Amino acid sequence: MFERFGDLPLHVLVIHLAVVALPIAALTLIVFALVPRWRWFLRWPALVLGLGALVCAFVAKKSGEAFVAAVPSLEQPVKLHQQRGDLLFWFCLAFAVIAVVAVLVLSGPSSLASGKGAKATKSRPLELVTSAAVVVIGVLVIYQTIRTGDAGAKAVWTGQLPPK
Predict the structure, then answer these.
(1) Which of 37, 40, 47, 145 is exposed most, by the fewest CB atoms within 10 A?
(2) Distance CA 65, CA 128 (A)
(3) Which of 115, 77, 78, 103 is nearest to 25 (CA)?
């Protein structure tokens, strides 16, 4: 199921999505947490991107495992990439949970001029802790996405490019 999309290995396609979508999801959720006046606008995109990041990381992980199973000679060269990808998946799982919590906990104004639909502040300390957790896990997701992609690119392209 995770091996191919048409004639291409699925992993090759999905990683490009992951490299773009995970940092965008993290940045969106960080802005949602840090800029209360934009929460009315970013609440649903932050939730969808937070959960989408988890789906993207899961498909990238499973398709990578299927790719290595289909081409066993890749197992050793991509070992570091696979370890970093496994850690990235766990970061994305935590990120998705934090995204759901943030959308439920963080207050913000309504998009309506009347103010109806605004979320009331539940607890200021809870908002601060949630916002801090969003920033920390968001930065970790961005950092680990870069590290994972770098390890994968080095595994594939080392020795393939012409010398400088």
Answers:
(1) 37
(2) 38
(3) 103
- How far the first Cα of the chain sits from its last, in Å, is 40
How far apart are alpha carbons 149 and 146 in whole angstroms? 5
Q: Is 159 left (phi over 0), alpha (psi -120 to 50) or beta?
A: left
Tens digits of residue pLDDT in 34-61: 998 888 889 999 999 999 999 999 999 9
Q: Is the pTM of this model over 0.90?
A: no
Location of structure tokens 């398709």: 63
Identify whether the C-beta of residue 22 lies closer than 8 Å to the C-beta of residue 53. yes
Tokens of 22: 């995970």
Tokens linked to 163 = 């010398």
User: 69 CB contacts (<8 Å, ≥6 apart)?
Assistant: 3
Which of 43, 97, 30, 68 is closest to 155 using CA atoms? 68
Cβ within 8 Å of residue 101, ≥6 positions away: 130, 133
Cβ count within 10 A of residue 159? 5
Amino acid making up residue 6: G
- Helices 79-105 and 39-70 meet at what angle, rounded to 10? 160
